[in-house]
Amino acid sequence: MINHQDIYEKLVQVASKENVLVNEELRNHTYTKLGGKADFLVTPETYDQVQRIVKLSNEEHIPFTLLGNGSNLIVKDGGIRGIVLTLKRLTNIKEENETVIAQSGAAIIEVSRFALAKKLKGLEFACGIPGTVGGALFMNAGAYGGEIKDVLKYAIVVDRKGNILKLNADDLDLGYRSSNIPDRGLIVLEAHFALSPGNYEEIKAIMEDLTFKRESKQPLEYPSCGSVFKRPPGYFAGKLIQDSELQGKGIGGAEVSTKHAGFIVNKSNATATEYIAVIEMVQKTVKEKFGVDLVREVKIIGED
């Protein structure tokens, strides 16, 4: 039996009272605006605090979950037991010898803008990706022909035992929207991106073009988890969903976007249960009509 007061006091000793929230609604911390309560939501400010929280989790045998900004994640309505860690206070970005070093909680969009300001090219593709640096590595985020593995040099991570490691990009098995980070239970602290000198106006023009494409095609006016499904071999998920006449169809407050069929939007205070039900409806319908299995890109965690 977990002694919640005891755990709370130990977490406060590590991360201070203002960085430890109890029974916090995770819908307030996810891009999708979905999710029930976390027993403890902790926002460490230093790498040492991250290490100590991981070690505390191990010592107390209390479940531990890492949460980015939840842009490619659905947290179920029952919330998450134990400690939920978010690195949103670790947002520093700097440059050394054409390498941009960004902490895990920094928005990858901000990292691409920082690179532009330094006249460095290579991260233009990331100018519209809504996740954090940690989340971008977690799923090898990509867009418009670029992906994290194209520019990642190495990452500083914390392992399951609380040890800090330096891992090269090759060590992370970066594939299509995947890495070995979740399987190994790693927490990304910072990423080192190897970029190259470029022309400011040319980099800016590419980013403006990609931003226009994103804003004109994607339903950014509503919360969502971004592109829900991986691209099936030989097809486009959005086209299959569109041809299944599912746009505008929904359950409760969640529906398939009328602007981009590959997105499911939280249009009106949807629950995670409703959102997941729409995902399953889309998968079932596309399978029946076209015989194609749509595989989720978005991750689902938490309790019912």
What does this structure look like?
The protein is of the alpha+beta class and 304 residues long. It folds into three domains: 4-86, Uridine Diphospho-n-acetylenolpyruvylglucosamine Reductase, domain 2, CATH 3.30.43.10; 93-202, 2-Layer Sandwich (Uridine Diphospho-n-acetylenolpyruvylglucosamine Reductase, domain 3); 219-301, Alpha-Beta Complex (Uridine Diphospho-n-acetylenolpyruvylglucosamine Reductase, domain 1). The chain has helices spanning 4-15, 47-60, 108-117, 133-138, 181-184, 200-217, 237-243, 272-290, and strands spanning 20-25, 37-42, 64-67, 73-75, 80-86, 93-96, 99-103, 120-121, 142-143, 146-147, 152-158, 164-168, 187-194, 196-197, 224-227, 250-251, 254-256, 263-266, 299-301. Strands 6-7-13-11-12 form a five-stranded antiparallel β-sheet. A four-stranded mixed β-sheet has the order 1-2-5-3. A hairpin with a 6-residue loop joins β17 and β18. The longest helix is centred in the C-terminal third of the chain and has 19 residues, at 272-290. The two termini are 21 Å apart. It is found in: Cytoplasm. Belongs to the MurB family. Keywords: Cell cycle, Cell division, Cell shape, Cell wall biogenesis/degradation, Cytoplasm, FAD, Flavoprotein, NADP, Oxidoreductase, Peptidoglycan synthesis. Residues 34-213 form the FAD-binding PCMH-type domain. Its main location: cytoplasm.
